[in-house]
């Protein structure tokens, strides 16, 4: 009689365990993200280098998500470099993982810094973009008015 009771209890647990399984598990890989920056000064002098601190905030963490960064110089002339002085090329992308001093402490917020140096006497307007390996892309426009005594380039 004990064996029948154990079998019945075992069968009941098996039914409850397998009956509560759900095949509709949502495994996300392409989490949404945003690109923002810390406070930026509004005016720079020709030849002055300014720090641009970026924040890549993600809705979730997928370890195989890869990001790349690039920029387009919309107006003016200048150079974008990383903390080691390596230039980023206008209208080309670079893996974000290669940016020195990329802060990965928080898995859903990555912080990194780039530097911009204006080489013209005109206003500088840049459009930075980050894209992931799932085709999502976010942009951030950055504008600096140039303080000069002359308006020549």
TrEMBL record:
Keywords: Signal. InterPro entries: TraQ_bacteroidetes, TraQ_sf. Pfam families: TraQ_transposon (PF12988). The keyword tRNA-binding does not apply. Residues 1-19 form the signal peptide. The keyword Signal applies. This is DUF3872 domain-containing protein. It comes from Phocaeicola dorei CL02T12C06.
């Amino acid at each position: 009689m004990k064996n029948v009771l154990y079998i019945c209890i075992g069968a009941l647990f098996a039914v409850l365990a397998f009956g509560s399984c759900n095949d509709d598990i949502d495994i996300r890989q392409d989490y949404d993200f945003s690109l923002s920056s810390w406070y930026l000064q509004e005016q720079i002098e020709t030849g002055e280098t300014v720090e641009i601190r970026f924040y890549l905030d993600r809705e979730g963490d997928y370890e195989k998500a890869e990001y790349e960064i690039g920029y387009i110089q919309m107006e003016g002339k200048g150079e974008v470099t990383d903390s080691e002085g390596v230039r980023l090329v206008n209208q080309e992308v670079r893996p974000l993982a290669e940016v020195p001093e990329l802060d990965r402490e928080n898995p859903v917020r990555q912080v990194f810094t780039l530097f911009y140096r204006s080489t013209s006497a005109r206003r500088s307007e840049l459009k930075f973009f980050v894209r992931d390996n799932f085709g999502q892309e976010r942009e951030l426009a950055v504008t600096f008015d140039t303080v000069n005594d002359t308006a020549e380039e």
